[in-house]
């Protein structure tokens, strides 16, 4: 069976143990193309680089097993966002039940050169990480992936109205917390 | 658009994972696919999402009272059945003895008539 995913012709074979088997070089191209998106979703959500990489790997392994069900490049991107979001939220719930360490205990990764105020960006990323599970993913999908509320609603299986109101609320919370954080830094 | 939204876009910019990320994914693909053990399956079932626990609580709180009501109805139905059975047996016994008496009277009347 042949299918086209991410612009690549991928040969898919039926196998008893694994649902599909794809030629690895083609699959590697898919991973390379989308690893930044999947990893960033997990990284911004979890704020733990090792865990984010592990979750991202799990997402691609799951993709490999479900590749036959992917219908188009757009569907591939939608699928990756949906599965990555779900895995991140599940991970947070598990960690909330069996906490290993607090967010403040996690060392920050080495700062990279980026435009804008690096301190402000770091503070904002930390504030985003302190938002509740769903609200955090909403903000990440909105500002990392630049998705509009209807796309976010499809990814997270939520009503559009709820997405809009939660985004609005999250922005208010972030604005409020940021004002306090900046005030503390200024003092 | 507010400054906060611009700042969020910068703070949440995409980042790349470690350089050998793809190779590590492919290496994991080459590992034999292991079926989850019963312990892993149980651990998945016991995962903490509150929704699962809430659903379980709702199911239990509906099932137990429903089963109790059903059991009580069953016991009551059986008791009523037993009572009805006892009444029926009593009625049959009464009817039997009355029939017996009537039969005796008929026989006695017959004998007297023959003598006359």
Describe the structure concisely.
The complex is a heterodimer of chains A (187) and B (116). Chain A has 187 residues and is mainly alpha-helical.
Features:
heterodimer, A: 187 residues, mainly alpha, Rna Polymerase Sigma Factor, Chain: A, Arc Repressor Mutant, subunit A, 2 domains, 66% helix, 7% strand, globular, B: 116 residues
Would you give an account of this structure?
The complex is a heterodimer of chains A (187) and B (116). Chain A has 187 residues and is mainly α. Chain A is 66% helix and 7% strand. Chain A has two domains: 1-103, Rna Polymerase Sigma Factor, Chain: A (Orthogonal Bundle), CATH 1.10.1740.10; 114-187, Orthogonal Bundle (Arc Repressor Mutant, subunit A). Chain A has seven helices and three strands; from the N terminus they run βββααααααα. In chain A, strands 1-2-3 form a three-stranded antiparallel beta sheet, covered by helices on one side. Chain A is globular, with a radius of gyration of 18 Å. Residues 6-19 of chain A have low confidence and may be disordered. In chain B, 7% of the residues are buried. By secondary structure, chain B is an all-alpha fold. Chain B contains four helices and no strands. Chain B has helices spanning 3-11, 21-30, 38-45, 50-115. The chains are: A mainly alpha (187), B mainly alpha (116).
Topology readout:
The complex is a heterodimer of chains A (187) and B (116).
Chain A lengths: L1 E4 L2 E7 L5 E3 L1 H23 L2 H18 L6 H25 L20 H12 L3 H11 L5 H8 L3 H27 L1
Helix pairs in contact in A: 1-2, 1-3, 2-3, 3-5, 4-7, 5-7, 6-7
Chain B lengths: L2 H9 L9 H10 L7 H8 L4 H66 L1
**Would you identify the regions of chain B where 5 or more consecutive residues have pLDDT less than 50?**
none
Counting copies of identical and different chains, the oligomeric state is: heterodimer
The order of strands across the largest sheet of chain A is: 1-2-3
- Biggest beta-sheet profile of chain B: none
User: At the first level of CATH, what is the class of the largest domain in chain A?
Assistant: Mainly Alpha
User: In total, how many beta strands of chain B?
Assistant: 0
Query: Rough shape of chain A?
Result: globular
Number of strands of chain A: 3
Give the ordered list of helices and strands of chain B.
HHHH
Classified in CATH, the superfamily of the largest domain in chain A is RNA polymerase sigma factor, region 2, helix turn helix motif
The whole-number mean of residue pLDDT values of chain B reads 86
Let me know the average pLDDT of chain A. 80
**Largest beta-sheet characterization of chain A:** 3 strands, antiparallel
Under the CATH scheme, the architecture of the largest domain in chain A is: Orthogonal Bundle
How far apart, in Å, are the first and last alpha carbons of chain A? 65 Å
């Amino acid at each position: 069976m042949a299918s086209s995913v991410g612009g690549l012709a991928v040969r898919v074979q039926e196998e008893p143990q694994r649902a599909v088997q794809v030629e690895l070089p083609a699959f590697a191209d898919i991973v390379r193309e989308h690893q930044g998106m999947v990893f960033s979703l997990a990284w911004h959500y979890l704020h733990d680089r090792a865990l984010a990489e592990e979750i991202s790997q799990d997402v691609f392994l799951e993709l490999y097993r479900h590749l036959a069900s992917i219908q188009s490049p757009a569907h591939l991107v939608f699928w990756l966002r949906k599965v990555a979001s779900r895995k991140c939220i599940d991970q947070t719930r598990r960690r909330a039940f069996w906490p290993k360490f607090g967010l403040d205990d996690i060392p920050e990764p080495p700062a990279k050169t980026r435009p804008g105020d690096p301190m402000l960006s770091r503070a904002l990323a930390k504030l985003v990480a302190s938002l509740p599970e769903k609200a955090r993913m909403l903000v990440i999908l909105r500002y990392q992936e630049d998705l509009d509320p209807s796309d976010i609603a499809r990814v997270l299986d939520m009503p559009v109205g709820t997405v809009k109101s939660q985004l609005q609320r999250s922005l208010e919370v972030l604005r409020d917390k940021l004002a306090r954080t900046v005030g503390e830094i200024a003092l | 658009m507010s400054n906060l939204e611009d700042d969020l876009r910068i703070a949440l910019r995409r980042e790349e994972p470690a350089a050998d990320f793809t190779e590590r994914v492919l290496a994991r693909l080459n590992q034999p696919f292991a079926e989850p053990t019963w312990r892993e399956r149980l651990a998945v079932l016991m995962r903490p999402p509150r929704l699962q626990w809430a659903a379980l609580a709702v199911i239990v709180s509906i099932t137990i009272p429903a089963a109790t009501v059903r059991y009580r109805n069953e016991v009551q139905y059986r008791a009523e059945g037993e009572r009805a059975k006892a009444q029926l047996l009593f009625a049959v016994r009464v009817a039997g003895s009355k029939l017996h008496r009537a039969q005796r009277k008929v026989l006695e009347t017959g004998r007297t008539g023959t003598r006359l």
